[in-house]
Design a protein that fits this description.
Largest sheet: 7 strands, mixed
Strand content: 25-35%
Strand order of the largest sheet: 26-30-31-35-34-33-32
Helix content: 25-40%
Structural class: alpha+beta
Oligomer: single chain
Radius of gyration: 39 Å
């Protein structure tokens, strides 16, 4: 929210500069996001001038050459200014920027020649002073005086500083208002915060004097005005007043300047007054042209499905049954809490105004705005939940301004409809007890009761003494936020100065520690980082197009279904992801676009799917009733080269299936779980993987995921040839329970190993993993290690067969082995390979 500093100082003016005000507000919880400069920064070169003569430029039809009296502001008193405004004439009192003046957009006014005529300044229009853009041509002060819009009530003499009669701008603070503080969505609410934070005096509330009146609306004209609320759960209060003899026109410069500085566009005096009252009180208002309200009747009701309304921005919006509209005898005339309708807009010819101030249901307004893609200053306030009492504040403010600036006459009475208006408010709200002992226990330091009372009174709380502290009555604008003693302690702490609280240790050291599952997950992450991988974090949501690019057909029953969100952030985040692969590929593409093509990435995150849980036996677990399955997954992506280019290796090999397989095996070692691979049972189950270079990942023999190289037909990412894997990290951690914390030490150096190599010819469809498993099972305790170090296929071994060269390492912990001791183990290995796998010793 933008708050002009001069407007804020009107209600609370501490003897502090803007930077000190920023610090105090931020330290008390009302964060200042930025400080802007609106309008003219330096006022010295902006003065009042009087046009003495005005003649047509000799070489330009649209330019005029004016002699302008600047009094003491010019060495010779009178200067020549070339002006392009069509409404400049002799005798006018105008605003002038002298040479050296800097305009709001940063342009510096200089002496110049325009079509051969020297010009020493610039006659200004409203928009050039950032006041507004409602008046065409230059700003004529005589007209402002005639309309009663000139400060001081008389024409200033030439040379008078322009800042004496017109607002030229100043500093604007931009605030971040948290959702629990809608009371600070108005300038006066911020002034109250500044008053509490600095101790500077606070001016009386600007709505203290109400020129309107309560009670039934008295209308001598026709037709009479009626308001009916048909959805009280969504409209707690609806107030309305009727104004006659409204003179529609331009707002005075001071009002335009404040609206412009606050980020609002001045339109006309009636609309500007509603915006001004909203910005000051925090309560939105809406003005109807009463003569355009069909039947003189307004009904607050739920919209019909498919109903349409044309809003003030010229758009026709289609509504659903959960939205709220205000309609008249001809149908919807505005969308409640968001935007008025074009049909009852205040405009040229308006003389009777119906001023509406209402309290709407915040969540409903938020949903309506999100669904329609429509958000306004009003909806931003209603979303946070306003108090019904604020309607009176805004009505009183707007009533006074309509009478003063529009010459309006307010009819007796105020329409007050809705459940709040009909409720019994005679009983005072229950106070909240604030104990001195509890304040000290929570904050660690005592805060005197007198100081607590002073802080709470500054924030508009009412207090009375109690035996052990204070009984506090919460003001209406804070009742949704302050409900208990801890909330009051927070108010005391933030105003008294959280930065003044000493650093203290809690009375007891926390005994919490990571669970075993958490420790194992961290060990898994550390293992990957230790092997040169970088962790990425992706969106939990994904787009339907991502599944299509991964060749995942939503209707394929062999895979878990993707779950659509009811309220997606955007089309790109419409589904819950079923795999981490999409976000890993997005990260790879992002890096490739910046020249990083050799990547080693991993991600830990939750994946979701529609599952068979919905058909499981009845259970008290609500997650089962949704039919949604989720688990924590770990994804790995390698692309580019396996190692950096060096002078010794100018072209390192690219990553492949075996590179990512090695990463997973290292992960298994870190968790003391045996990770291995097996042929994928159904290659089509993972269509994003190369059919000949994919496998199933096993942990202790149980399937936990997949790995492989990216399918060449996967398109849309800059990661061709990537090697990828994804496993169920929750399942891997569960399998590591009870084993990962064990410490196992192996003697590596006391006695040497005995190595023997064998070459075995087998059918080519026998996996090497099965060969090594048979070797390890049959060799006995002396076998220390077995690995394949060469593969040969060719005429020497026959068609359909291949030769695997296996290095066998034998070791004993108490002696050096001999060939004689190893021979039986070697024979058992050959027998197992021959009988179980159809292998034979080569040559």
């Amino acid at each position: 929210m933008r708050v002009p500093l001069d407007w804020l100082r009107e209600y609370c003016d501490p003897d502090l500069d803007v930077r000190a005000i920023e610090e105090r507000l931020t330290m008390t919880g009302t964060k200042v996001e930025a400080i802007h400069q609106h309008g003219v920064r330096n006022h010295e070169r902006f003065v009042i001038g009087r046009v003495q003569t005005c003649e047509r430029h000799p070489d330009a039809d649209r330019l005029s050459v004016c002699q302008v009296d600047l009094g003491a502001a010019a060495p010779d008193g009178v200067v020549t200014i070339v002006c392009g405004a069509p409404n400049v004439v002799a005798g006018q009192t105008v605003a002038v920027a002298c040479p050296g003046a800097v305009m709001p957009d940063g342009t510096q006014i200089k002496r110049a020649k325009l079509r051969g005529v020297a010009s020493e300044g610039m006659i200004l229009a409203e928009q050039e002073l950032a006041i507004g853009a409602g008046r065409e041509g230059i700003l004529v002060l005589d007209e402002l005086l005639r309309d009663g819009q000139l400060a001081g009530g008389e024409l200033p003499s030439p040379g008078t500083p322009l800042a004496d009669v017109l607002p030229l701008g100043g500093e604007v603070i931009e605030l971040e208002i948290t959702p629990n503080r809608p009371d600070c969505l108005g300038v006066y609410g911020v002034a109250r915060e500044l008053h509490a934070a600095t101790g500077a005096p606070l001016a009386p509330v600007p709505w203290g004097e109400d020129l309107g009146s309560p009670g039934p609306l008295v209308d001598a004209g026709e037709p009479s005005v009626e308001v009916r609320v048909e959805c009280p759960e969504l409209c707690r209060r609806f107030t309305a007043r009727v104004f006659e003899n409204v003179c529609l026109g331009q707002s005075p410069p001071w009002l335009k300047a404040r609206l412009s500085a606050a980020g609002q566009r001045p339109i006309n005096n009636v609309v500007d007054i509603t915006n001004y009252a909203m910005l000051l009180s925090g309560q939105p208002l809406h003005a109807f042209d009463l003569d355009r309200v069909a039947g003189g009747r307004l009904v607050v009701r739920g919209a019909h499905e498919g109903e349409q309304v044309q809003t003030l921005d010229g758009q026709t919006r289609t509504l659903d049954a959960q939205m709220v509209v205000i309609d008249d005898a001809e149908g919807p005339t505005s969308i409640a809490g968001l935007m008025g309708g074009a049909r009852s807009e205040v405009g040229e010819g308006t003389t009777r105004v119906l001023l509406e101030v209402a309290t709407w249901n915040g969540p409903n307004i938020h949903r309506t705005g999100w669904t329609l893609g429509l958000r306004s200053e009003a909806s931003a306030r209603f979303e946070k939940g306003l108090a019904p009492e604020q309607c009176d504040h805004a009505q009183a403010l707007a009533t006074r301004l309509l009478i003063e600036l529009c010459g309006a006459r307010v009819l007796l009475g105020t329409i007050d409809a809705g459940p709040w208006a009909q409720s019994d408010r005679s009983q005072a709200p229950s106070p909240v007890r604030l104990r001195e002992s509890r304040v000290q226990a929570i904050l660690g330091v005592p805060v005197p009761r007198a100081r607590q009372r002073e802080i709470l009174h500054a924030l508009d709380f009412q207090t009375s003494d109690a035996e052990d502290g204070l009984d506090v009555v919460v003001p209406p604008l804070r009742r949704a936020d302050v409900t208990r003693e801890a909330d009051l302690i927070e108010e005391v702490a933030r105003i008294d100065g959280v930065e003044k609280l000493p650093a203290t240790l809690p009375p007891k050291r926390p005994a919490g520690r990571l669970s075993r599952e958490q420790r194992l997950r961290r060990r898994a992450v550390d293992a990957l980082v230790g092997r040169g991988l970088y962790e990425t974090i992706g969106w939990t949501f994904t787009a339907p197009s991502t599944l299509e690019r991964l060749r995942l057909a939503p209707e394929d029953s062999r895979r878990a279904a993707a779950l659509a969100l009811e309220n997606p952030l955007s089309e790109d985040h419409a589904l819950l992801r079923t795999t981490l692969l999409g976000s890993l590929l997005d990260s790879a593409t992002h890096n490739a676009a910046r020249g990083n093509v050799d990547l080693r990435l991993f991600e830990v995150g939750t994946v979701f799917s529609g599952s068979a849980l919905a058909t499981s036996p009845a259970t008290s677990d609500p997650r089962r009733e949704t039919g949604v399955s989720e688990h924590r997954a770990l994804g790995v992506l390698l692309c580019g080269r396996q190692a950096p280019t060096t002078w010794q290796a100018a072209d390192p090999p690219p990553v492949d299936f075996y590179a990512v397989k090695g990463i997973l095996e290292a992960l298994g070692e870190a968790l003391r779980v045996t990770v291995s691979c097996a042929p994928a049972p159904d290659p089509e189950h993972h269509p994003y993987l190369h059919p000949g270079r994919a496998a199933e990942v096993l942990a202790n023999g149980e399937s936990i995921g997949w790995l492989g190289e990216l399918h060449p037909l996967v398109d849309g990412w800059d990661a061709a040839g990537a090697a990828v894997a994804e496993i169920d990290l929750d399942r891997l951690v569960a399998l590591a329970q009870g084993e990962a914390d064990e410490r196992r030490y192996v003697d590596l150096i006391s006695f040497p190993t005995l190595r023997e190599d064998i070459a075995v010819v087998l059918p080519e469809d026998v996996p090497a993993a099965n060969v090594l498993a048979a070797v390890r099972e049959s060799a006995g305790k002396l076998l220390d290690d077995a690995r394949v170090f060469d593969v040969y296929s060719g005429p020497q071994v026959g068609e359909g067969r291949r030769s695997l060269a296996i290095a066998l390492s034998f070791r004993a912990s108490d002696r050096t082995l001999s060939d004689v001791e190893v021979a039986p183990a070697r024979e058992r290995i050959l027998t197992a390979l021959r009988e179980r796998l159809g292998g034979e010793l080569r040559g």
